[in-house]
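[job 0412] stage=fold_complex status=start
inputs:
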Amino acid sequence: MKIDDDLIEYLAELSRLELSADEKGPLAGDLTDILGYVGKLNELDTDGVREMTHPFEAVNHFREDVVTNGDHREDMLAGAPDRKGDYFRVFKTVEE
Amino acid sequence: MGDDLRGLSALDIGNLIRDRKVSSPEVTRVFLDAALVDASKDPADDTKINAFVNIDEEDAMWRAEEVQRLIEAGDAPSPLAGVPMAMKDLICTKGGLTTAASKILGGFRPPYDATVAEKLHAAGAVVLGKANMDEFAMGSSTETSYYGVCRNPVDTSRVPGGSSGGSAAAVAAGLAPYATGSDTGGSIRQPCSFCGITGVKPTYGSVSRYGLMAFASSLDQIGPMARTARDCAVALSIMSGPDGRDSTSVMDAPFDVCKAIRGKYDISKMKIGLPRNYFAEGLADDVGAAVLDAAGRFEALGAVVEEFDLPLIEYAVPVYLIVACAEASSNLSRYDGVKYGYRSPNASDIRGEYYVTRSEGFGTEVKRRIMLGSFVLSSGHFDAYYKKALRVRSLIKAEFDKAFGKYDFILSPICPTVAFRIGEQIGDPLAMYLGDIYTVSVNLVGAPAVALPCGTGEGGMPVGMQLIGPGFSDPMLLGAAIRYQDEYGAGA
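[job 0412] stage=fold_complex status=done
writing structure:
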């Protein structure tokens, strides 16, 4: 699998990253090497093998839906890079 | 007493505090001073360990005094009450800087405690500060930290391992009696091996991940790191247990390691498997020899040691890379500069706010893994890479299950070499990933493993070994490690 510039652009878009020209070249090389290496998995026949997403058979642990965390509005907002009153402030998200 | 305290185990210090030979504030002062001296050194000074990214002197002294009051009232909450410790910078403490050693979390003070932090506080732990690590735990050398490389106290030209390198270095350098680490693919065990200390990667789900910044959620597990297996046993008993805030929590009750092994632990009934494939090409001679010597010591204690085949090891790192990066790319999507941490001043619209913040906030290794994760999860590649990896993960699990049908424990090396030099591998990501070959399977299958020193290799550097057991055998693993260290010492 060769990672070319178009694919790097596409992956950066999926990753919400803006890569500099200096970053793209080495990254394409690294990803090509890494994907070449993990291609090793194709040596194994996995037909009919179950996909394992979790170390143990997942069983949901339900608990009562009780509010335990109280009102932490000010604590949560205290770390905001930018705020206005009780809101996180960001750039406009809707075009006029 | 002073600096003599810095060479003691956490339990020995806990006993001195309980016996009123020394107070928690006195002990805390000794470790704080040592940590602050190191922190004050110039980053270019090659004697600087740089084990901490943040030291919270005021909070530590306040907590030490609070715990001392309990102890004087005869209410010491645990054998480690009043003993200082280092918290990995990936574990949230309320109001305490927690940055995952990343620029993107610069200045972040969590509004809550991780469950582990809550439990340790309740047990009277005194948190000195946050231990250095690879950014978001992505690395094997603590060289990807935004706050500078951490050095190995045994030889400061070498790395301490990673990602919990600051935790290991703090313990090995006598800057903290014990520490928390987290292990996604070897991040507790490999630094233990490189720095010559003991640590536990517990059974998946036994220690709550609530408040641990997520890297790869199906692999991450918090565990203790210390000078001795006994210290780790007590710390794990404190840290483990059920938690309604972590849906992957699987315990009914915390491990009571001391109770579990009291009186009934007998190493002579143990059957230990040595996976032949782990002692093959790629393993440095000095490391292989030290681990085999240790196997001989277990035999001398009466255990039966046998070689067996674990052939899928060569597929473990590929599966790990795919699974870990896929989960990381998803987990790290939350860092967008909106609610906490770093926001770039160089953006002029909402798109830029996300893209520029993330591009400036994440380091190279983190970007590489997010990109790789995006690739294996993208339509067109999902089946060929991600699903394929999940199927091979099943095969690896089956291989370990089969081994545990025959053996109580598996004994293996942790890393193919002793600690490498700073800068030696950072330019070659694939070489760095391959160093995880002996450790990642444990995370893929959810098993527990204890890492402990087993001698020295090239340049007098420590060599570690790991004992791997089936799920929930953590107390028995620690029992074996304690027995081994009682007989041969914690450095052998």
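[job 0412] summary: The first strand of chain B starts at residue 52 and ends at 55.
[job 0412] exit 0
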